[in-house]
Amino acid sequence: AQSVTQPDIHITVSEGASLELRCNYSYGATPYLFWYVQSPGQGLQLLLKYFSGDTLVQGIKGFEAEFKRSQSSFNLRKPSVHWSDAAEYFCAVALNKLVFGAGTILRVKS
Amino acid sequence: EPEVTQTPSHQVTQMGQEVILRCVPISNHLYFYWYRQILGQKVEFLVSFYNNEISEKSEIFDDQFSVERPDGSNFTLKIRSTKLEDSAMYFCASSDGLAGSWNEQFFGPGTRLTVL
After folding, report:
1. CATH of the domain at B59
2. Do B99 and A45 touch (CB under 8 A)?
3. What are the beta bridge partners of residue A81?
4. Of A85, A75, A89, nearest to A20 (Cα)?
5. Which of B36, B43, B42 is nearest to B87 (CA)?
6. Does B91 touch chain A (CB under 8 A)?
7. Residue B99 pLDDT > 70, yes or no?
8. Among A71, B6, B65, B68, whose CB has the most other CB atoms within 10 angstroms?
9. How close A80 comes to chain B (CA, Å)?
């Protein structure tokens, strides 16, 4: 069955430090891949998506993600984290519906 | 910017009662979805809806659940007889194409359902 794994439940980084959130998927072909962010009490906002082509995709808020077929990964990165980035981040695969990972809670310390 | 809206933001109900969660999708979208997120768990797909019928549903979406598009703007999720384990955040989403294609799903802010 298709699945999405986010191995880190919580991550804490210092403001200004770089960030990488991991995502691995299990699927027979290359799926459509997404990263969503959920701030407390808010809905899910799309950060970026990958369909095909350039494996490094740019998103909103300075985020980027790199698709690596050989590793079945789609890790999210940001070179310099801001305190407002504190939220929960979800990786998802689109297969007529979205299949989400369990999420990674990002804490930013000043 | 158009957005998906949901009402109410928080619903408290007694076990066994019926609840209706309401959503107003983005006006030119054709595909509608419900997802739920039990506290501390992942977001799970419940159902997708297109052309006035269910396109796909998960095993969670049993006979206690139903969806309806009663008019040109609303999309509702009904739980006929709520159970304690139905307590969750319910998200509505809409898109102008299938999620299995390139089309983005836009999510509402969610309705937190608490079953006592």
Report:
1. 2.60.40.10
2. no
3. none
4. A75
5. B36
6. yes
7. no
8. B6
9. 27
Of A13-22, A45-54, A59-68, A72-81, where does mean pLDDT reach its minimum? Answer: A45-54
Write out the residue range of the structural domain in which residue B70 sits.
5-115
Pick the more confident residue, B72 or B78.
B78
Count: domains in chain B:
1
| DSSP E strand stretches across chain A | 3-5, 10-14, 19-21, 24-26, 32-38, 44-50, 56-58, 64-68, 73-78, 87-94, 98-100, 104-109
Which residues in chain A are contacts of B93 at CB distance < 8 A?
44, 98
Q: Which residue of A has its CA nearest to B55?
A: A96
Q: What is the CATH number of the domain that holds A41?
A: 2.60.40.10
8 Å CB contact of B98 and A96: yes
Structural domain that includes position A97:
3-109
Q: How many CB pairs under 8 A join A and B?
A: 59
- Indicate the pLDDT class of residue A97, thresholds 50, 70 and 90: confident
Is A59 an 8 Å CB contact of chain B? no
Residues of chain B in contact with residue A94, where contact means CB-CB under 8 angstroms, are 99-101
